[in-house]
Amino acid sequence: MFKDLKALGKESLIYGLSTVGARLLNFILLPFYTHYLVPAEYGIVAAVFSYIAFLNIVYHYGMDQAYMRHYADREKALPASFICLAATTALLTLGLCAFAPFWAGASGLGAGNYRLVYYSAAILLLDTITIIPFADLRMAHRPLRFAGIRTLSIVVNVALNVYFLKFRGWGIESVFAANIISSAAAALLLVPEFSRVTLRVDLPVLRSLAAFALPLLPAGLGAMAVQVLDRPIMLRLSDTASVGVYQANYRLGIFMMLVVSMFDQAWRPFFIERSHRPDAPVVFARVLTYFTAGGLFLWLLLSFFIGDLARLRLAGINLIHPDYWGGLSIVPVVLAAYLLNGVYVNFLAPVIIAKRTAVIMSVTFAGAAVSIAGNFAFIPLFGMTGAAWTVLLSYAVMAALIYLRGRSFYPVPYEFPRLAGFCAVALACAAPVYVFSPQGPGGFALKLGCLAVFPAAAWFSGLVLPEEKEALGRFLARFSPAPGQKTSAG
């Protein structure tokens, strides 16, 4: 078991380091945006990229996941999936550009902002034509090439954002120009993967790909509705400045999102390849336990100190502009929502292994319904706090429903008592900080102390099993000198 978990961890680390490095570069843009864009301008950017994220699901319609599931027949599946996507992408892009003023007005951006529709269409087109080559790299276990291209694209994006916004003064159009150029750079770097695509499409394979992928379209729309519809709804119920403040603080949850994202990149190939092994269910259960325990520790760390990070002064300038501090209270809720999204990703394994993707559709529709109803109900009453709690509730509903449906297809003995124990310890560690809300050096010390209690309590309460303690001891022993061996200092 530990060998399999080590393999998962290794690929997660490679994907993760690239994703973390790239996203952290991208995270630099958050304080940059807060100092060069007023909340109303940042609100427009947030709304447009919410629509882009939603439309990405329409453009992709699950074809990358279908290709990964049919990777055993790669020679036929690669051209079929790529050419199918190319054809539909061309049609969708034409539809967006031909009616740009209409789409701008209908989205709440205003018909005068129709140029943003053109930019969005270009980003969607470039991102879509790269998803099959990226999926091929994942299934071929080439994480270094995958990571290198993704990282370089983000570096280009960050550099051009700074150049266009600070030195050229292009305003919000800087964000879109930088994204278009960086997406084009990624496509150019994937030319060797594109060259392997032939023009011969095997129709039976295409039908099989479509049968797997199309149920994922409504499912993906539902899942994306949970992630991004709060901003367009807030745009209609409130104003662009509120959306900008909400978006800036929502993005402070990036660190938990990175963990979930890097895990997901390695998790899907991992469980697909091992699903037929007799010990797979036990391994999958243990993965969820470790993911949850690590995620809870990260939730405590970030929840305790993210406000201090936002207020940090560098060269006399706050990391996040004070105009955006009013939304800091939503960050712990957003972090918890991302963690629940990771639990949902874990619970997807039985459903995907059983090829019951239609179940994902019904589950994500339920999550989307909770998201839409919750946002319309809570945003007028509680503002951005209501939107953040709605995201958390939506992911909780989705995780519960996908587990209940998946257990009948592919039973996995999840360690729920241990999971409950880790959650209880985490909440007990968080309580003193949130009850007393201490400030100053004393508050900082209390946060550190409560954070340190979590692993100690898990270790001595029996939540960490004896074989896990033994495995950890063997791992740490590899970094200790053998008896009688001289250290470098000696």
Features:
single chain; 490 residues; mainly alpha; two-stranded antiparallel sheet; 23 helices; 79% helix
Which whole number gives the mean pLDDT? 85
Looking at the structure, what is the overall shape?
globular
- What class, by secondary structure content? mainly alpha
- Along the chain, the helix and strand elements come as HHHHHHHHHHHHHHHHHEEHHHHHH
What gap, in angstroms, lies between the N and C termini?
38 Å
- How large is the count of helical segments? 23
Q: Classify the beta-strand content into a percent band.
A: under 5%
* Widest sheet: strand ordering: 1-2
For the largest beta-sheet, the strand count, sense and barrel status come to: 2 strands, antiparallel
- Whole-angstrom Rg: 23 Å
Estimate percent helicity.
over 70%
Number of strands: 2
What are the segments in which pLDDT stays under 50 over at least 5 consecutive residues?
Answer: none
Walk me through the structure.
By secondary structure, this protein is an all-alpha fold. It has a domain at 62-213. It has helices at residues 2-27, 29-36, 39-60, 63-69, 74-98, 100-106, 115-128, 131-139, 143-167, 173-189, 191-194, 203-213, 216-228, 230-237, 240-250, 254-274, 280-311, 331-353, 357-382, 384-406, 416-436, 440-460, 466-477, and strands at residues 313-314, 317-318. It has a two-stranded antiparallel ribbon with strand order 1-2. The protein is globular and about 60 Å long. 43% of the residues are buried. The model has no long low-confidence stretch (mean pLDDT 85).
